[in-house]
């Protein structure tokens, strides 16, 4: 039976979605191609019709995960609330690819690292745009610090075996970022007012 182009594309998306969940949950090395294909509901033999190798799958999955992310909240308080939440902490397979895969990516191919770098840049730009003027070096500095704090706090909160400390890390990081970006937002607002005058 001949598979249509549309079905091929749908199968490819199923593979990328399944790989994205499995890689985030277990890491790259712990997941086999056969496991990805089974999770996608497809036969192992069909894999090479879509990808050259597992390395190719990894790189394309990282790009897919970042590309498939739906636009989230557009204000900093909502971003902090969603990202540094117990729900996000506990949803590794569906959560932030950076926090789930950061330790593994440095051992992957240049293509995988490039896909992760592109995802980083997108997140930093998004945060800079909600913190203040995107052209301001201070907004970019604050965005980089915020992104690093978000990812670091989530990784720590997922790693430790102390529920109270885990929740405290999420809450205090949320408060710390909020405290340290309020001045940046005020500066951006003042700069906008001054330039408009």
Question: What does this protein structure show overall?
Answer:
- The structure is a single chain.
- The chain is an all-alpha fold and 197 residues long.
- The chain has two domains: 5-65, Orthogonal Bundle (Arc Repressor Mutant, subunit A), CATH 1.10.10.60; 72-196, Tetracycline Repressor, domain 2 (Orthogonal Bundle), CATH 1.10.357.
- Helix content is 74%, strand content 0%.
- The longest helix is centred in the C-terminal third of the chain and has 34 residues, at 163-196.
- The model is unreliable at 184-197 (pLDDT under 50).
Q: Would you summarize the structure shown here?
A:
This protein has 197 residues and is mainly alpha-helical.
Question: Which key terms come to mind for this protein?
Answer:
mainly alpha; about 75% helix; about 200 residues; elongated; 2 domains; Arc Repressor Mutant, subunit A; Tetracycline Repressor, domain 2; single chain; about 0% strand
Rounded to the nearest angstrom, the distance between the terminal CA atoms is 69 Å
Please state the structural category: mainly alpha
Order of helices and strands: HHHHHHHHH
Shape, per Cα inertia axes: elongated
β-strand amount: under 5%
Alpha-carbon Rg, integer? 19 Å
- List unreliable stretches of 5+ residues: 184-197
Number of helices: 9
Approximate helicity band: over 70%
Biggest beta sheet attributes: none
Mean pLDDT: 87
CATH topology of the largest domain: Tetracycline Repressor, domain 2
CATH C-level of the largest domain: Mainly Alpha
* CATH architecture term of the largest domain: Orthogonal Bundle
Count structural domains: 2
